[in-house]
Amino acid sequence: MSAFEEYEQERREIDNLLFKGYRIQDLQENLDGAVVTFIWETGGSAAAVSADSPPVSPTAARIDLVLLTADARKYVMTRYIELKRERAG
């Protein structure tokens, strides 16, 4: 898989989670990439689910997405800043 295809796959995963209503809660970077924590809140406690399935219960769900490409890490930060500005303004 080319670097562009890897980035596109990670970008689609990010957009899919944001479209489903998840929000970015945390971002941890390391030498191997970054782990982005998405949370879907409706109240209650956190329950882990896979990135492929939407949350089933009416409680908060948490997904940790591993990003390996630098472009995807830049993209998720850009989206994070955009969403923060939308909520503030």
Describe what you observe in this structure.
With 89 residues, the protein is of the alpha+beta class. It has helices at 3-19, 70-88, and strands spanning 23-30, 33-40, 46-48, 60-67. It has a 4-stranded mixed sheet. It is globular, with a radius of gyration of 13 Å. The termini are far apart. Mean pLDDT is 84; it is low at 43-49.
Provide the fold topology.
Layout: H1 3-19, E1 23-30, E2 33-40, E3 46-48, E4 60-67, H2 70-88
Parallel strand pairs: 3-4
Antiparallel strand pairs: 1-2, 2-4
What's the shape?
Answer: globular
The average pLDDT score comes to 84
Largest sheet: 4 strands, mixed
What gap, in angstroms, lies between the N and C termini? 40 Å
Helix content: 40-55%
Strand order of the largest sheet: 1-2-4-3
Instruction: Tell me the strand percentage band.
Output: 25-35%
Q: What pattern of helices and strands is seen along the backbone?
A: HEEEEH
Number of helices: 2
For the secondary structure, the number of strands is: 4
SS-derived structural category: alpha+beta
Tally of separate domains: 1
Radius of gyration in whole Å, from Cα? 13 Å
Query: In terms of per-residue confidence, which ranges show pLDDT below 50 for 5 or more consecutive residues?
Result: 43-49
Could you give a short description of this structure?
With 89 residues, this protein is an alpha+beta fold.
Which descriptors would you attach to this protein?
single chain, 89 residues, alpha+beta, 4-stranded mixed β-sheet, 2 helices, 30% strand, globular
